[in-house]
Write a structure and sequence with these properties.
Glucose Permease (Domain IIA); about 40% helix; two-stranded antiparallel ribbon; ten-stranded antiparallel beta sheet; alpha+beta
């Protein structure tokens, strides 16, 4: 039963029923509908901003995976670029120097990627800058690899014409890997074991048990086989082409001056004669009148992994054995 409102009319001394006009009814209905629309809109807005739809959740997962993949690719590119930089360094400062070839021009090494915008199709996306930067790194690395490949092709042709030269230059370790205990000290400034001063160490110390065989690292002729100059019992081999190698602190020498020797031939045995604190061979390479780092001349008997390992050991700061 509908409820009605009444008011007291003093003029008539009676209660009269309150009537509701059409305008009032329309206003109330419109107010209710407006409030409902606003409430609904606020609810939809809240859901839209704070609650992800299944599709949005899927897209967010894909976006996170994409970011992880981009990060891993950038890391991998940086690692490959580091390996390539080492190859370029060895190419410029070792291989081309050995074959007396002109170094590759630095502008060619940089491998410029000028010209039209080749990444136009990648523009217009939210991640365009990131994608373009990644593609530029890949293209730059590919161009550098291509240049390095052509350089090695050129060096290969030079090597084919220098068989005798390659047989003579130092190219192996003076001690076999199976007999090697460790690389005690490399080329560069090290702590002198006796004087405890920071002194330039002009070779590499290979530690091995007393009496371990020491081998010639390239073909040549024995120039010196004697005791003296702090090297103790030592041998110097003249390889020709401006190269000589020195083997110091031997316990015994097995060659004599003037003897022709071949790479891998026995020169003597590991000892600790002269200025030495433990059994080892101090090994030097002299090019012209300058003592150079022997670490760059072990390319005949080491794998890439072995070469990198021994290079890291030789570069560590520490105390030399002589």
């Amino acid at each position: 039963m509908a409820k009605h409102k009444y008011f007291y009319n003093p003029n008539k001394l009676d209660f009269e029923r309150v009537g509701t006009s059409l305008a009032t009814i329309v206003f109330r209905v419109f107010g209710f509908l407006s409030a409902s629309v606003v409430a609904g809109a606020l609810m939809v807005l809240a859901i839209y901003n704070f609650v992800d739809s299944p599709k949005e959740k899927s897209l967010k997962r894909e976006n996170e995976q994409y970011k992880q993949q981009v990060h891993l690719l950038n890391k991998r590119i940086a690692e490959l670029d580091k390996v390539l930089a080492d190859l370029q360094d060895r190419d410029a400062n070792i291989y081309r120097a050995i074959f007396e070839a002109d170094p590759i021009d630095i502008n060619i090494r940089k491998a410029g990627m000028g010209g039209a915008d080749k990444y136009q199709e990648l523009r217009g996306f939210e991640s365009s800058d990131e994608l373009i930067a990644l593609n530029q790194k890949v293209d730059d690395l590919a161009a550098k690899v291509n240049i390095q490949s052509k350089s090695f092709d050129e060096l290969g042709k030079l090597a084919a014409n220098k068989t005798e030269f390659l047989a003579c230059i130092p190219a192996i370790q003076p001690i076999s890997n199976k007999d090697l205990t460790r690389v005690a000290s490399g080329y560069g400034y090290r702590i002198h074991p006796i004087f405890k001063t920071h002194k330039f160490h002009s070779g590499i110390d290979f530690t091995a048990p007393q009496g371990t065989p020491i081998y010639a690292t390239g073909n040549g002729r024995v120039e010196t086989a004697e005791n003296g100059n702090g090297y103790g019992n030592h041998v110097i081999v003249n390889h020709g082409f401006g190269y000589r190698s020195l083997y110091a602190h031997m316990s015994r020498i097995k060659v004599k001056p003037g003897m022709k020797i071949q790479r891998g031939e026995l020169l003597g045995y590991v000892g600790s004669t002269g200025t030495s604190t433990a059994p080892h061979v101090h090994y030097e390479i002299i090019r012209g009148d300058r003592k150079i780092n022997p670490i760059n001349y072990f390319f005949n008997d080491l794998t890439e992994e072995e070469y990198q390992a021994i290079r890291e050991l030789a570069n560590r700061e520490g105390q030399s054995f002589d």
